[in-house]
């Protein structure tokens, strides 16, 4: 059980990430916002919210990017830059690792299904589309590889 004061401090940091997920949020910066040491912050954040700080930030970025891809006609590069990535390549690779599809594939599928979604409340849509990051992205990549690398060209990400 976390101390209520510590939980309040952690929520302050989490709120800052939610408000500006496109910014760089290293653990040191988040720990300063919370007023605790870096190691204590990282342990307490994971205990309180179930994800390490970096994975939480990554899930917010992917969630925002998916929303922009669904709801706007912005170029994919612009979506990547607006959601905090520095390059299109790292955005595309990470997006595919987390969601299982390329950003352009998501956009194409979403355009095709737009009429069907109009009958579903937005809160249910957001919950269904939230990325699930229970393991690290790099671990997901390793699980898709055999002893000599990706099992097939399609497995390469």
How are the SSEs placed, and which strands pair?
Elements: H1 4-19, H2 27-34, H3 38-49, H4 53-71, H5 76-82, H6 88-99, H7 103-117, H8 122-129, H9 137-143, E1 145-146, E2 149-150
Antiparallel strand pairs: 1-2
What is the CATH C-level name of the largest domain?
Mainly Alpha
CATH architecture of the largest domain: Orthogonal Bundle
Major beta sheet summary: 2 strands, antiparallel
Tally of contiguous helical segments = 9
- Mean pLDDT figure: 86
- Distance between termini? 39 Å
Order of helices and strands: HHHHHHHHHEE
Task: Please state roughly what percent of the residues sit in beta strands, choosing from under 5%, 5-15%, 15-25%, 25-35%, 35-45% or over 45%.
Answer: under 5%
Number of domains: 2
CATH topology of the largest domain: Arc Repressor Mutant, subunit A
Q: What form results from the Cα inertia axes?
A: globular
Uncertain residue ranges: 151-157
What's the arrangement of strands in the largest beta sheet?
A: 1-2
Question: Could you please describe the fold and organization of this structure?
Answer:
The chain is mainly α and 157 residues long. It folds into two domains: 4-50; 56-150, Arc Repressor Mutant, subunit A (Orthogonal Bundle), CATH 1.10.10. It is built from nine helices and two strands, in the order H-H-H-H-H-H-H-H-H-E-E. A two-stranded antiparallel ribbon has the order 1-2. A hairpin with a 2-residue loop joins strand 1 (145-146) and strand 2. The longest helix has 19 residues, at 53-71. It starts with a helix and ends in a 7-residue tail after the last strand. Mean pLDDT is 86; it is low at 151-157.
């Amino acid at each position: 059980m976390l101390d209520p004061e510590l939980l309040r401090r952690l929520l302050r940091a989490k709120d800052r990430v939610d408000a500006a997920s496109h910014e760089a949020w290293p653990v040191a910066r988040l720990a300063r916002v919370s007023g605790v040491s870096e190691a204590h912050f990282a342990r307490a954040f994971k205990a309180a919210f179930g994800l390490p700080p970096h994975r939480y930030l990554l899930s917010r970025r992917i969630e925002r990017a998916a929303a922009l891809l669904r709801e706007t006609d912005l170029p994919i590069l612009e979506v990547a830059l607006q959601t905090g990535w520095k390059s299109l390549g790292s955005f595309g690779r990470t997006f595919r690792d987390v969601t299982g599809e390329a950003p352009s594939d998501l956009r194409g599928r979403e355009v095709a299904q737009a009429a069907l979604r109009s009958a579903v409340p937005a809160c249910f849509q957001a919950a269904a589309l939230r990325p699930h990051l229970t393991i690290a992205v790099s671990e997901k990549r390793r699980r898709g590889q055999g002893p000599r690398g990706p099992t097939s060209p399609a497995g390469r990400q």
